[in-house]
Write a structure and sequence with these properties.
Elements: H1 3-7, E1 11-13, E2 20-22, E3 26-31, E4 37-39, E5 50-53, H2 56-64, H3 67-72, H4 82-103, E6 107-109, H5 111-119, E7 123-128, H6 134-141, E8 148-150, H7 155-159, E9 169-173, H8 176-190
Parallel strand pairs: 7-8
Antiparallel strand pairs: 1-2, 3-4, 3-5, 6-9, 7-9
Length: 207
């Protein structure tokens, strides 16, 4: 991706920080007809979009400071569990994308298959179970230089898209699905961050 392409990326302004950033690093919300704040991860719901940086700290501050009502210029109701609800929605969305990638033939699991995908340069994403053994992860990390890596879900969660009880190592091959998953995984990782709110996964390696 060239610098010119990055500069042309659509931007939105965060209603908490008032800083503009590429929309790929923010989460869109809308106000329902009943006056409730609703996450719109697919960015398709009607109504004026209210955007927040994909950071757990920023989302919690926006809820605590009634930022949604101020931005909407009306009283709106914010679910008490909104941060947890957003994480759950991202988890379901990302795991569904992994399942779709498997059915499309662009996802593999298992140490050896993932190792081969990394070594051949076909892997766009490496997904490691958060509760997986360090030994296997270290071995794969040696050949995963330049590959975006995420560790957001347990082996049990990763196993479901493959019809297994567990999956510790998963590779997503270069594809449109990989790009969609990458965007959502970055935002999902940001929801666990407490610092700058950039929404960047702690293990993400920018190529």
């Amino acid at each position: 991706m060239t610098a010119a392409t990055v500069n042309k990326a659509p931007e939105r302004r965060c209603i908490q920080t008032w800083q503009s950033a590429p929309r790929d690093r923010l989460i869109r919300f809308v106000v329902s007809p009943e006056g409730a704040v609703v996450p719109d991860l697919e960015e398709k719901l009607p109504g004026r979009g209210l955007w927040l940086t994909a950071s757990g700290d920023i989302v919690r501050r926006a809820c605590a400071e009634n930022r949604f009502s101020k931005a909407a210029r009306r009283n709106v109701s914010v679910p008490d569990d909104l941060p947890a609800r957003i994480i759950a929605l991202f988890d379901r969305r990302c795991l569904d994308l992994i399942g779709l990638a498997r059915r499309s033939g662009v996802a593999v699991s298992g140490f050896q298959k993932v190792r081969e995908a990394l070594a051949s340069g076909r892997a766009a994403l490496l997904i490691e179970a958060s509760d997986g053994a360090d030994d296997g992860r270290k071995k794969l990390s040696r050949i995963a230089a330049g590959t975006d890596t995420f560790s957001l879900w347990t082996a049990h969660q990763l196993g479901a898209p493959f019809g297994r009880d567990r999956a510790v190592h998963v590779a997503i091959l270069a594809s449109g699905l990989a790009e969609s998953l990458r965007r959502d995984a970055i935002r999902r990782a940001g929801l666990e961050n407490e610092d700058t709110g950039n929404g960047v996964a702690l293990e993400l390696q920018e190529s």
